[in-house]
Amino acid sequence: MANFGVLCFLALVISLIALNQNVVEATFPENVYFTWGADQAKIYGNGDDLELLLTNYSGSGIQSDHAYLFGSIEMLIKLVPGNSAGTVTAYYLSSTGDKHDEIDFEFLGNQSRQPYTVHTNIFAQGLGGKEQQFKLWFDPTADYHNYTIHWNPSEIVWFIDDIPIRAFRNYESQGIAYPNKQGMWLYSSLWNADNWCTQGGRVKIDWSCAPFVAGFRNFRPRACQWYGTDSIYQCSATTSYNWWTFPEYTQLSYSQVGQMNWVRDNYMIYNYCTDYQRFNWNMPPECNLGQY
């Protein structure tokens, strides 16, 4: 009986540790810290709301307290209104080092009444160059919208308001790098990129419109916390608490594929997999493989 009690206690401890990896904390102060520009950014609304500012003095940015390996990273974002040309609002996951992994949402500003460009990219072991860009089917400055990065051992999916816009499958077995062995932190920032972001840098920031303000709300990291290399197995194991490994999350459903095709048919403006001149017709191997 004593041994049985010890085993039960150990099982409880292990379960609590596992569940703690998936805890959704409630506020920005519990999840992030300012990496720069803290003097012109603010957290308010009981900690659920964040504003990042850009002026001709500085931009601003945050980083999550924890790194993650697999799960869903969600954020409600309201982009800079009006003439946002030259500004970039970034929201992405990244590890560190020369061979870093990264999964990007970047929102490229534009002149008033012109649509934002949503720039997506992925890096694995330091190799990127997998850009896809979209326009949006709504005004992203009028209200908050949900931007989610879902990432598991099988695939990465970029969602906007629960609509998938892009997927990248794990073809590591075929020699294609996939981000699955490094924890990544969440970063968000608002910064001056007028040397390239709006019409290739031809349209500069109009500083008379400053301060530029982007709003963030309800950061929800429903993900496995990274505790070092042991997490490579722990976060990818097919277990009851690693919900992102469940079969329904390993591939898009029929209806999700339909949604994605609608977005890509109507709102995609750049796809590296069709930029034949860029690659001199020697296309990246994943471009010939199904992604969803």
Overview of the structural elements:
It is a single chain. By secondary structure, the chain is α+β, with helices and mostly antiparallel strands. Helices cover 14% and strands 36% of the residues. The protein is built from four helices and 14 strands. The chain has helices at residues 2-20, 28-31, 230-234, 254-267, and strands spanning 32-36, 42-44, 49-54, 60-78, 87-94, 102-108, 117-123, 132-134, 145-151, 155-160, 163-169, 184-192, 212-225, 268-271. Strands 1, 2, 3, 4, 5, 6, 7, 8, 9, 10, 11, 12, 13 and 14 form a 14-stranded antiparallel beta sheet that branches. A hairpin with a 7-residue loop joins β5 and β6. It is globular and about 50 Å long. The relative contact order is 0.21. Mean pLDDT is 91; it is low at 1-21.
Put the structure in a nutshell:
The chain is built from 4 helices and 14 strands. The chain has about 290 residues and is α+β, with helices and mostly antiparallel strands.
Rg calc:
20 Å
Strand content: 35-45%
Mean pLDDT: 91
Label the overall shape: globular
In terms of quaternary structure, what is this?
single chain
Let me know the number of strands: 14
- Structural class per helix/strand content? alpha+beta
Helix content: 10-25%
Number of helical segments with 4 or more residues: 4
> Can you tell me the residue ranges where pLDDT is under 50 for at least 5 consecutive residues?
1-21
Distance from N terminus to C terminus (CA atoms, Å) equals: 51 Å
Element pattern in H and E:
HHEEEEEEEEEEEEEHHE
Most strands sheet: 14 strands, antiparallel
